[in-house]
Design a protein that fits this description.
Two copies of one chain form a homodimer. Chain A contains eight helices and twelve strands. In chain A, β8 and β9 form a beta hairpin. The radius of gyration of chain A is 18 Å and the shape is elongated. Chain A is about 40% helix and about 20% strand. Chain A is an alpha/beta fold. In chain A, the strands form three sheets. Chain A has a five-stranded parallel β-sheet, with helices on both faces. The first copy, chain A, has a four-stranded antiparallel β-sheet with strand order 6-7-8-9, covered by helices on one side. At the A-B interface, α2 and α3 of A face loops of B. The structure holds a DNA duplex.
Chain lengths: ~220, ~220
DNA sequence: TCCTTCTTTGATCAATCTGTGAACTTGGTT
DNA sequence: AACCAAGTTCACAGATTGATCAAAGAAGGA
């Protein structure tokens, strides 16, 4: 992974989903897709993306419901896709916590523009650039880190891995989940890879920064 | 979650399924139906409903099997429909992970009451990942536990066992049922295994956390 | 292209957990 | 009270899982 923001697309029409995904990937975003409400919620909860692109009309339950569930714990920027310029849909969508909307049919270009706008706004928000925990501090805009006040050099993977833990305190992830969410790998990749980078992170940020849960995986140290 | 919970009904008799669905829809639930075991599992996986109403006798494979598969990844509240007031059916159903049961013939009114009761219970800790009972608290996302405020280390098996009891308060399970539901073993494994882990759990979470029912098995302490 | 740095992977060793039997204790019954 | 069945405790061998390391492979810059 990288500084490329992660985006979850929740859209039941495969053609639109694929088109959007392709375009966004070309823009350098990290894109994941869900095709209905429930799996959308699950995806967002698991992935913790930087932004969600959400169809208003979905099987399972609709986009507004998804939006509400997503926002329950903490704010994730949401852009709604609405079929028509229906004002009431729109108000509902924004009321549910969407940050912006775009009406179908839309040009990919327009969507990308909105995404950048929303991300810029979200990033301007306070606390976006710094992650702290114990003696560790990461600056996500500069991708630098310090341990007990001492600057440490972190490689891209190490930084993303550490940042992932800092963004999900208290949660334990399996190696496979980490490979999917931090690396973006489909699955089946070598699990030793995770171990190696955990080792590197521990060496640089302190042995207790990451906690091992035997038989399960890793989580942020308590 | 919306004020309209989604319910999956798995029932092979069309008359019963229709009657139940009608009544539940009248109550404002969002109802989906499957008519046999395999499609029931598929429905639940796809729909991720708030609750499942499950017939014990089904074509394909029976309700217990469905229940087990459903619960494999995460807990979904289940209410079992049993044809007769057969005690062994009942225990088995609860052993497989059902939250409540109701014997046919039942009044729609009774079913609705149970559904509300189960949903209330389930919502007490809505996905927050926290299970509480007396001085014990488990965090299912971090797989950590505390006893009277003191953090305790639980191994994977111990944690799963304790969590199982917390998710099924008031229900007593035989050792074999525990081996099947917590361990996932087919059957016939050593019953001392359960005892050993019960012992470990008691040592860590207090001797009264698990209650022994002589000649039957174990349940959450009252 | 070559060189440097980072990532991935397999092998090996160490730590931890699990399952099991035997001895011992408790509870229920006659 | 004596007896039998059931539950508890304990220790340890075997199995799993994690840590560490070295080296090959990939990516990127000079």
């Amino acid at each position: 992974m990288s500084d490329h923001p992660t985006i979850a697309v929740v859209e039941d029409e495969p053609a639109i989903a694929a088109a959007v995904a392709t375009r966004l990937r070309a823009e350098g975003f990290n894109v994941h897709i869900a095709v209905d409400g429930p799996s959308g919620v699950a995806l967002v909860e698991q992935l913790q993306p930087d932004l969600v692109v959400l169809d208003l009309m979905l099987p399972g339950f609709d986009g507004i419901e998804v939006c509400r569930r997503i926002q329950s714990d903490r704010h994730v920027p949401v852009i709604m896709l609405t079929a028509r310029g229906n004002e009431s849909d729109l108000v509902l969508g924004l009321g549910a916590g969407a940050d912006d909307y775009i009406t179908k049919p839309f040009s990919p270009r327009a969507l990308v523009a909105r995404i950048h706008a929303v991300l810029r706004r979200a990033h301007a928000a306070p606390g976006s650039g710094r992650l702290r925990h114990r003696g560790v501090e990461l600056d996500t805009s500069g991708r630098t880190g310090t341990h007990d006040g001492v600057a440490v050099h972190l490689t891209v993977t190490e930084f993303d891995l550490a940042a992932w833990f800092l963004r999900h305190p208290g949660v334990v992830f399996t190696r496979e989940q980490l490979l999917q969410s931090v690396w973006g790998y489909p699955d089946g990749s070598g699990e030793r890879t995770v171990d190696s980078h955990i080792q590197a992170v521990r060496r640089k940020l302190g042995p207790d920064f990451v906690r091992t849960v035997h038989g399960v995986g890793y989580g942020l140290g308590q």
